[in-house]
Write a structure and sequence with these properties.
Layout lengths: L5 H11 L2 H7 L5 H10 L8 E8 L13 H15 L2 E9 L13 E2 L10 H25 L6 H9 L9 E6 L19 H13 L9 E6 L9 H18 L3 E2 L6
Length: about 260
Amino acid sequence: MAAHHTGSRRRALGAALPAATLAAALVVGTTGCGAIGEALGTSVDRYSAACAVVVDGSGSGDPAPEGFDAEVKLHTTLPDFLADLECGTLAFAPITSASQFSSCQAEEVELDPEGDPTLDREEVRAAQRAVAEGVATELLDCARTTQPGSDVLGALNRVSGSAPGDGEAFHILVVSDFIQSDVGSGLDEQDLTTPESRAAVIDGLAEQGRLPRLADAVVYPAGYGMRFSRQPADYADFDAFWTELLEGRADADVDDTYRR
């Protein structure tokens, strides 16, 4: 499982960079790097954005045409997301039948680690982004085989715990079609046809403590509503529900850059 394979991440990074370069790139202490930087008159402008990725292990993420193909969507969006946002760290969360309590987990990956300022930073960053993509793939595999389901809200609640907490932006890529279908709150069973009925559903979720706290977060959906390509008449209500929940109640911003 992705949760506990820190060794596999190290091996993956070791394969991406030669051993000697890797050792220099990932210097843990600050003294040596500072001395090198001072001696050479150089400094490293490191990326610092806090980012996260949420991966959907439900059946709707199966390969096309049955599903929206979560694995392909992950591989086609995550690299651009990490590079575009200049992410410095990446946290992870799975979507399962009970996402907050899923045993699938992964440790945060540092994407622009401290290192020798004479190294090619883009090489180091590219290597770390490849590591992060591998971790996300392992987490998706775990979510698909361990209590698969579609508790999107639980995953958003879980990943919100990785927010910086200092008012800085938190960028969350959510690779999911956003079909909330866990027991008790399946969207298919709810009346989402009017503002009043949608508000009632969201009020019920709030009373259960299920609304994520996403102030200062920007949510980037990838795969959002793709099942409605076969049910276009229902898309408007679905979209209105999530817009009201994410932007109106959870205080998030939503960015459609990676919705494709």
